[in-house]
Target: Bifunctional protein GlmU
Amino acid sequence: MQAVVLAAGEGTRIRPLSASLPKPMLPAADRPLAAHAADAAVRAGADELVFVVGYEADAVREYFGEEYAGIPVEYAVQHEQAGTADAVRAAREHLDGAFAVLNGDNLYDPAGVERLFAAGPSVGAHRVADPTSYGVLSTDGETVTDIVEKPADPPTDLANTGAYVFPAEAREWLDVPASERGEHEITDVLARTIAEHEVTAVEIDRWLDVGRPWELLAANEWKLGELERDVRGSVHENADLRGDVVVEEGASIDAGVVIEGPALVRSGASVGPNAYVRGATLVGEDAHVGHGVEVKNSVLMAGATVGHLSYVGDSVLGRNVNFGAGTTVANLRHDDQPVKLTVKGERVSTDRRKFGVVVGDEAKTGINVALNAGTKLSPGVGIAPGETVTRDR
Ligand code: TTP
Model:
């Protein structure tokens, strides 16, 4: 079966991290989000991957190439983000037979995706405490009878995960009219499929929709938590690696370093001397964590450098970010309330007691910069020495 992976979105809510990478290409542990979705599809038996690309499409093409995990890869271009049905419609000429659809920015538990593929036509459902902000499935036994968007009075607690197996005819049902919000929605294609076929609701036990920056931290925590200790890079005899720590070939860990798993130090990265890396942390390719630096529960993307005497907690640092000596991140509010972040102009709770900062690619801080919890720095911005940053810059 072919698996269509939707990866055309920009990810406006995860800005500034999506400034030069589409959201599905942001890293969770050792690979981009979209690769976790693709891996789940391959494990479930997909024999071809079709990526729908648009925003920053080259990043997707470069990563997946023409063959991935032993199966062929095709690309379909969606020129305008006109909705998820429109995205699949862009892939129509590639489709031949029953096909699966997965969101490229969602993490799905792979066993669930296996069951989904085996049960098609099917839709992946995840039980949530408050279904009112999701598409919610009505069922009769395991058969789906209806789907309603964001219902005030949800019929079940089964949220639509955006993972589907459609029958071959659905290829002809993709031209749905625009919804109230002006998008052509795949859920309208699902509604037609429910009307004409028996569609099975398949429970996906673990699922994460990555929309906002803190959800990327959650994705990283999930996928780092699945890694097992594996040390291939060079590690000084006085370094102490505790638990599930992965040090890739070509990474180096210097004297006096303590790393607590789950943690991943990618190829070309260097840590130390005398640094403390706590779980769950990703130190990306060619990133550097230097002397006297503590990093905790953070994503340092490729080339990010935190060189001297700094603290980084519960934060996401984009590619080639450079923190000057003594840069300190606050990740806890004095009133102990959840940290808030501005998402598309609105202050939104991260629902996290601890959350630090989100830093766009190539941003730099001078020495002794203090960054307040819940602040964002734009790509390329420079913060002068000694500044205290309490608002997004
Ligand atoms: P969303 O997360 O709803 O949209 P987005 O990725 O653009 O993010 P934001 O809302 O922050 O701007 O998209 C869900 C999935 O569908 C995601 O994998 C991107 C994909 N998608 C497309 O490929 N084409 C589209 O037209 C839309 C709306 C989404």
In short: The chain has a mean pLDDT of 97. The first helix runs from residue 33 to 43. The chain has two domains: 2-210, 223-389. The two ends are 46 Å apart (CA to CA).
